[in-house]
Every structure is written in structure tokens, then in C-alpha cells.
């Protein structure tokens, strides 16, 4: 089991660097999840017996790594959840793509539809029932061995939108076989998508807080 990497602890606000492959919420019995690790950390640090409250205002998909925030009390958890619901949290991702995009920077806009009873989305026409708009901006930071390292700023927060939108232009996220990638990583539950930076309002002081998570060491072997 990986060691918990705490990257921000500011009053009730806690930020950690989630490893790829670790379940962020709702793990089956006997499987360790990220909240389990955070609760264990809080128990030990603050010498708290019994159950420890942990607010979970958002989550990352299992194969994704990076910034994940929690709250140590319910009032602040509600304030953080409201920011995510209103989409005022600014999120920047880094991704390694299997192919290099034709344009070094750009904006992707698609209508995506979540397939019922499946953890997967597809791109549909704008007038398709249930389809929702997905927008992002990207820029290529580096290229290596026909791969590209891109920085992605989300304008919407749709399920799997980075993964399906880049796959749609022929540049799937490295190791993301669910969306057409041909590559793989050492961990079959990992893909090369990382929540690098998050900017939000502190739930008590209301000033801006920026949290950044170092990229996974495994990316070094991919040329980045």
C-alpha cells in the first residue's frame, strides 16, 4: 500500500496527492481506499479514538492521480462541496497522450453522454437526449517518442471528459484502454492523467488556496 502524501493541511482543509490505482470512495470490503488512509492519518496525528469525521467534497477516478481535498468538519465540507457544485474550483490537469495533437494548443468542445449502468461516456450530437456540453483548453508542454505532455484546464467537469475528448481527436491518454489507448503502465489500474493544481476558496477564511501535487515518478520512464 502506498504511503499517504499530504500536500496541504490548513485548518480543516486537507489536501493529499492521490496515487493512481487507489479507490477514492466506496471501496469493497477488505480493499483499502484513499479515505481509509486519510482517516488513519488523522487518528494518528491527532490521537483520536474511534471513528474520525472526514468530509469528501469531490473525488478522482481510480486510475487518475493528483490533488484530492478533504475536510475535517461537516460545516467546511458543505462549503467545499458548494464550490465544486457551482464549478468555482479551478482545476488543472497534466496528461501524457499516446499521440501528439495537430495543434500545440486549443479548445475542445463536445457533447458527451453517459451510458446508463456503465462507467463510460461517449460523444454524441448536440441534440442527442441526455448529452451534456464538455469544454476544455489545452496546451502541449513537451513531446517525446511521439507522445505529448499536455496541460489541461477544465471549463466543465463532466465524467471522463478529458479522456473521451482527447480520444476523439486520436490522442487517447496513455494507458487509457477504456478509451482506445494501446499502451499500458506497470499498474493496470493506472493511466497517465494527473490532477496537478487546484485553486479554491478556503472554507473558513475564504481567501484563495492553491494546491499542487507532484507528478508520479512512473512518468519518468515515459520520457517526461
TrEMBL record:
Pfam families: PseudoU_synth_2. Its EC number is 5.4.99.23. CDD domains: PseudoU_synth_RluA_like. Residues 15-167 form the Pseudouridine synthase RsuA/RluA-like domain. The keyword Isomerase applies. Keywords: Isomerase. GO terms for molecular function: 23S rRNA pseudouridine(1911/1915/1917) synthase activity; RNA binding. It is an enzyme of class 5 (isomerase). Transmembrane segments: none annotated. GO terms for biological process: pseudouridine synthesis; RNA processing. Belongs to the pseudouridine synthase RluA family. This is Ribosomal large subunit pseudouridine synthase D. It comes from Thalassoglobus neptunius. The lineage of its organism: Bacteria, Pseudomonadati, Planctomycetota, Planctomycetia, Planctomycetales.
